[in-house]
Each structure stands twice: as C-alpha cells, then as structure tokens.
Amino acid sequence: MILSNNFFSLSGKQLRALMVSTASMAFLLFGYDQGVSGGLLTLPSFCTTFPEMDTTTTTGALNSRNSKIQGLTVAIYEIGGAFGAILAFVIGEKLGRLRMVWLGHFIILIGAALQCASFSLTQFIIARIITGVGIGFNTVTIPVWQAESSCSHNRGKHLLIEGSMITGGVCLSYWVNFAFHYTAGGLSWRFPLGFQTFFAVIVCLVVLDLPESPRWLIRKGRYSEARCIMDALDNDLSPEARESNFAEACSGVTSAPHGGSSDGVWKLIMGFGNDENAYAVKYKYRHRMILAVVHAIFHQICGINLVIYYAPKIYQENLGLTASQTRIVTATVNGIAYFAAGFISTALVERIGRRKLMLIGSTGMGMGMATVAGTTRYLDNNVTVAAVAAAFVFVIQAFFAVGWLAIVWLYPAEIVPTEIRYVANSIVVATTWLFNFLIVMVSPVMLANIHWRAYLIFAVLNVTIGVCVYLLYPETARRSLEEIDEIFAEAKGPFDVVTVSLRKPYSYDAKGRNVALVVGPLTAEEKGVEVFEHIE
C-alpha cells in the first residue's frame, strides 16, 4: 500500500475538510453497524434462517435458551472490537495511521459480506467477530490520526463531528431497517447488513491519498515528509507560524525518553527506569494512562445502554404503542433527536471546554436516572407516569449525547503523550468495548432482578463521575498536544493538574494563531486568559 503525497491537489481548510469527512464516514459506518443488527432479530425471514435466535415463536425453556444465544450473538461484536483494539496495539505503530484505517475497512468489507451471505449461526457469529475486529482497528486509529493532524483550536470540533456521526449511523440503520421491514424474504435483513460495504468501499478508495499523521512520521524520523504534510495542512498560516508549529511538534517527540521510539513503552507507562526525575516520568505516562482508561470506563458505566434497552419496553408495555409505532418512535427519538443533540457538543466543545461538557452530561444524566427510577417504581399501567418516564429517557439520552457520546473519542487521545498515544488508545478502546459488552450483558439481569433500583445505582454513579471529572480531569480545549504535556509536567500532583490547566496562559488564540507571533493587541479571550473558570 503506497501512500500519496498529492492529497487530491488539496491543501489547508479543504484538505482538513476531506480528512474530517473521511473520518466521519468511518464513524458513520461504526454507528450503522452498531444499530443495524438489533432491528433484524424479530424479522420472520431472519428467524427462519437462524432458528437458534428465534424468540418470537418460542416459549418456555427454548425461548430462554434462544434469548441467551441471541444476546451473545449480538454482543460478540463487542468482543471482536476489543480483540481488534488489542491487535492494533501490536501492529498499529509499525503500519502507521492510514494503513491501519485502510486495513480496518477492508476487514469490515469481509465481515459485512459474510454477514449478508450467512446461512448458519456459526457463519453469522464468525462474521460478526470479523466485523468487530475491523471496527476495533478504526476506533483506535482514527481518533489518534485526527488528534495528531489537527490544530489546537479545531481539534475538539473535528473529533466531535466524527464521534457524533456514530449517532448518524445508528439513525440511518433504524430507518434502513424500517424501510425493509415489510420486504418479503431474505432481502429484509440481507440488504441492511450488506449496506455496510458501501461506506467501507468509499473509505478504502480515499484514505491512502490523505495525509499521514505528521507526529507519527516525526517519531519514525521521516522529518521531510512530516514537514511537507504540516505545510500542506497549515498553508493558510504565515511561514513563521508554520515553522513554529513544526518545531513544537518535533520537540514533543524528540524530548521524550527513548527519543519517542516504541521500545520501552511499558517502562514509560509504568514509570520504570533511571530518569533523574522519576516522579515526573511516572506522572507523565502512568497517571495520564490511568486517566484515559478510567474516562473510557466512565463512558460505559453511566448507564446509557440500560436506558436504550428499556426505552422500547416503556413505549410498548406502558404507553400502549404497537410494534410498528415503537419502531418509528425509536428511529425518531433514538435516531434523529439523538443525532441532533450530539452536534450541540460540537458547537460548544471549543467555547466552553471539555470539562464543562462532561460535567453537564453527568449532572443531567444523574437527575434523569433518579427521575426514571422514581417513575418506573410507580408505573402500574399509569399512562401519565409512563409518559414522564419516556420523556426522561429522552432527557438522559440528550444529556449523554451532549456531554459524553463523542468526547470519549477525543479526550483520551488528547491527554496521553505522543510517544505512547497509539498504545494507550488501543488499551482505552479495548476497555470501552469490554465494558460495553459487560453492561449490555448485565443490564437485562439488573432490570429483571432489581427493577427501578438499577436506575438509582446509575444515578449515584453519574454523580460520582461528575465529582471525579471536576477534581481530576484537566481542561484541554485550545491547547496543542505539546501544551498538554507541559500542563502535566508543571502539576505538583494529581489534584493540581486541573488548576494548572485552567490558569496556564494559552500559546494559541481562539483562531489557532500562535500568540507570540500575532501582531497587535489581543483580547483576553484571544489570549485564553481565564476563559475557563474553576471554583476552588
């Protein structure tokens, strides 16, 4: 696979827009693949082809057995994603960002084709795992590629656009499933599964002609290629600004222990070695790695999967909607509205920062979970109470979309150093997939055994998440990746990093210009001084 240096004859904003569009297409595919299978499980033709998963015409022990097989078959996709993330950890740093994205989509092509052509449960399960591996490659690589290629003032917006496209893919899958719901025969489920290949083919055709991550090239000693790419991406900046950006990117790698090489990555993470400032090294790597992994766990244990699982049950059993009406409501509420809410965070992420978005999300979800717990306790076929519960199910989803949905693909990639970013993101994504699998498997059990108390547990968890974010997670908005390194280096301990991040002067203004190179006076907001408030 030969990489191009032509970039479709584009540069500057146009080239960045194509990169974001390609990454967004990949995440649209991710969302589509997540959402498409759930809507096919009750189709007559699907149940006839896979009788082991038929829960619509079976009862008793057979229904219970089929239900478990169905849940495992759907959830096995997450295991494939976790395996793909771990495999990316092994081979990704050698192949580079673009080749990994291409390989991920090629694997998805194989998996989607096998799913579409399945005639046995074994083939379908294997196809699901293969598809998950490809998605695992992409979810590890694309956020790192974008984070390492974006400017400080638009990095958050770019990655949140891509993350929000997950909901666009889920929404699209709902409507494709609905459109083919009344189609006779295998077409009703084979076309929705096969439609995944459309997005994968587009990305495979485009991605190798896009710029490689300049910071990965610098790590590999390919400085001239990195300089060429940064000049193409920053061609709207002055020569002095481009030179400054390139020098900063180089210093962030060459000043690292081991010269930014992949050897000894685990020693860096664990803080081993004979460095003169052992605590600083440990703090820079191990502490930041822990923050990234725990952030991924927060994203899963906030309880959003429990809410999504229960919403159709409220619509049908308590509001009296038919199965068809429930599909329409689910496609609208879980799809279009969810998709729209996700773009609110895109508009706000650089204005109010990552921390405030996460705090807003956790607070809103905590209150929503507590309300749903109270209302579902007293449902008893009360339509009014059920309507309130359904409304707050949407409120929870909206707050999740604003505060947490897409930011999990941005924040961990920002707070870990360049020299371990790919390895760290592999572990973060594997953790996300495994906890996703865990919550999907546990949620039905919790609802069956402790009922409304399950929501109360997640209400408490969201409050806990909010406290942890407030105390431990620094603000990264409008900071270059190298500035984030400086924040952790200057912090005296884990509880000091937030204060440093909020009080340290900004090197770049709100338009991405280097403050030291801007001619003329700057406003306080342009300088970045005290833009983000922190209450002691």
Fold and architecture overview:
It contains 23 helices and no strands. The chain starts with 11 loop residues before the first helix and ends in a 9-residue tail after the last helix. The protein is an all-alpha fold and 536 residues long. It is globular. The chain folds into four domains: 11-210, Growth Hormone, Chain: A (Up-down Bundle); 212-255; 262-408 and 420-470, Growth Hormone, Chain: A (Up-down Bundle); 474-536, no CATH class. The chain has helices at residues 12-36, 44-49, 60-95, 97-116, 121-149, 155-179, 187-194, 196-206, 214-219, 223-233, 239-254, 265-270, 278-301, 304-318, 323-348, 354-377, 383-403, 411-415, 421-449, 453-472, 481-490, 497-503, 524-527.
Total beta strand runs: 0
Tell me about the biggest sheet? Answer: none
**Multimer state:** single chain
Structural class: mainly alpha
Q: Could you list the spans in which at least 5 consecutive residues all have pLDDT below 50?
A: 257-263, 521-525, 527-536
Continuous helix count:
23
What value does the average pLDDT take? 84
CATH class of the largest domain: Mainly Alpha
CATH architecture of the largest domain: Up-down Bundle
CATH-defined superfamily of the largest domain? MFS general substrate transporter like domains
- The gyration radius over C-alpha positions equals 24 Å
| Helix-strand topology string | HHHHHHHHHHHHHHHHHHHHHHH
Morphology call: globular
Q: Hey, roughly how much beta strand do the residues contain?
A: under 5%
CATH topology of the largest domain: Growth Hormone, Chain: A
Number of domains: 4
How far apart are the first and last residues' alpha carbons, in Å?
A: 53 Å
